[in-house]
Amino acid sequence: MKIICVGRNYAAHAEELNNPIPQTPLLFLKPDTAQLLDGFPLYYPDFTKDLHYEAEILLKICKNGKHIAPQFASEYYNEVSIGIDFTARDVQNRCKEKGHPWEIAKAWNHSAAIGQFIPLKEAQNKNGVIDFSLTKNEEVVQQGVSSDMLTNFDELITYISKYFMLLRGDVIFTGTPKGVGSVQIGDQLKGFIGTQQLLSCAIK
C-alpha cells in the first residue's frame, strides 16, 4: 500500500503557516513504513526539536483505478478514518529554505498515524459532511469539517489518479485544518470523527 497526502487543502491552515493557497492539489507520498496504527505509541524522533501534529480525514481506496472520471470517483472509496500527519517542522522549514524536497520532514518511520476505518455513511452527518477533531491531553486542539476542503474527496480521486494508479488498500490523507501544533514526550493524542474515537497515540 502507499500513502498519498494532500497539502494545504484548507485555506485557513495555509494561512496560519504563511503559505500560498495552491491552485491545484499539492501532493506528496509517504512509504508504507510510515504507518502507525491505532493504539501504538510514537517515539519522538531524535532529528527534530519541533514535532507537529496535523489531523486529517483519511480515505481508504476500495478498488484499483487510474485516470478516474469525476462521475465514477465516489466508487473508489467507501471507508474513512482520522489520521495524523506527523511533521518535523524545523526540518521541513530548513528544506523549504534551501528549495529541497521535504520527505525527511514528513515521510519518516511511523510519521503517519492511521485510525480505525468506518463506513463513509456512518461518518457523515445528515448533510453529508464529516466533522472531525483531535485532542491533546483531553483538550481539543484541532477541529474541521470536510465541507471546508478546497478540493473535495471526488475531485482528489480524479486528480490523484491522473498521476498515480490507485490500488485497493491505499490511503489518502486529505489535508489538515488550522490548529496544527507541537507535541512533547508524555502527550496523549486522540482522534475523532463526530463523537467516535478512532485513533489514540501516546508520544514517548
TrEMBL record:
Transmembrane segments: none annotated. This is Fumarylacetoacetate hydrolase family protein. One of its GO terms (molecular function) is metal ion binding. Keywords: Hydrolase, Metal-binding. It comes from the Bacteria. The keyword Hydrolase applies. It holds the Pfam family FAA_hydrolase. Residues 2-189 form the Fumarylacetoacetase-like C-terminal domain.
